[in-house]
Write a structure and sequence with these properties.
By secondary structure, the chain is an alpha+beta fold. The longest helix is centred in the first third of the chain and has 18 residues. 9% of the residues are buried. The protein starts with a strand and ends in a 9-residue tail after the last strand. The chain is 35% helix and 35% strand. The protein has one domain: Alpha-Beta Plaits.
């Protein structure tokens, strides 16, 4: 069964560009190496560019575990963690109600 999850966080304004670069590199890794990650999207809040939300759809628990235990996640965490403001990343699990995705 698919797993739907979001991650929200805020970083110091001085780190925004570096974090965005790390996000782009990380998403490229996910695209190339994680077939079980059906969606990985990162969005930056328009009215407050220090705030980010990541959206995940994992094929199943095994895909989520493979993602979370990857070296790429550890590298990405090293890029943003020192710059977090307002506490740690908040992960939230969701239940799909409806979408317009094909298939």
């Amino acid at each position: 069964m698919p797993i739907y999850q979001t991650a929200r966080y805020r970083v110091d304004a001085s780190a925004v560009e570096n974090v965005k670069t790390a996000i782009v590199e990380f998403v490229e890794y996910v695209r190339s190496n994680e077939a079980g990650t059906k969606l990985y999207a990162a969005w930056q809040e328009q009215d407050d560019p220090t705030r980010f939300i990541h959206l995940f759809i994992f094929q199943d628990e095994a895909a989520m575990t493979a993602h979370s235990e990857s070296d790429a996640v550890a590298r990405f965490e090293q890029a943003y963690s020192p710059h977090l403001v307002d506490g740690p990343v908040v992960f939230t699990d969701h239940v799909r109600v409806a979408d317009n995705a094909p298939g």
